[in-house]
Amino acid sequence: MRHVDLRLTSQAHQVIPTQPGPGRRPSVNVHPAVAQLTEGVKLLKQIAADRPALVAAALLGGATVGQIMAVLGWSLADLRMAVGRWAPELRKAGQLTEDQCAALLAIVYEPTSQ
């Protein structure tokens, strides 16, 4: 059986060098799919980190609970649970005032917020 060179030649499939982690050597032979997955994971982490403040800003700025639920694909119970956890965290971090925290909780827990 002869050896076949399977190097990909299209630009979308080029080998992408990555930064080594602590104690790891640089690797220039990372499969493009792994590099893309790495970038995707970074993006998902950033989205998750930004979500509490963005949801709070949107709701306090006049967006409806229904709009937020539609964008996130969440139920009202999911949104209430998340905001109930996020609001005090944002308050402790200095990103919400006490009044804003109370207003945010009131918005998602209003009987009509569906």
Beta-strand residue percentage: under 5%
Euclidean distance between termini CA atoms? 65 Å
Show unreliable segments. 1-16
Overall 3D shape: elongated
Count of helices? 4
Helix content: 55-70%
Radius of gyration: 22 Å
Average pLDDT metric = 84
Instruction: Name the structural class.
Output: mainly alpha
Order of helices and strands: HHHH
Q: Got a strand count?
A: 0
Largest sheet: none
Quickly list its features.
elongated; about 110 residues; single chain; mainly alpha; about 60% helix
In short:
This protein is mostly helical. The protein is built from four helices and no strands. Helix 1 (32-60) packs across helix 3 (76-92) and helix 3 packs antiparallel against helix 4.
Structure description:
- The chain is mainly alpha-helical.
- It has a domain at 50-114.
- The protein has helices at 32-60, 65-72, 76-92, 98-109.
- The model is unreliable at 1-16 (pLDDT under 50).
Blueprint (SSEs and pairs):
Blueprint: H1 32-60, H2 65-72, H3 76-92, H4 98-109
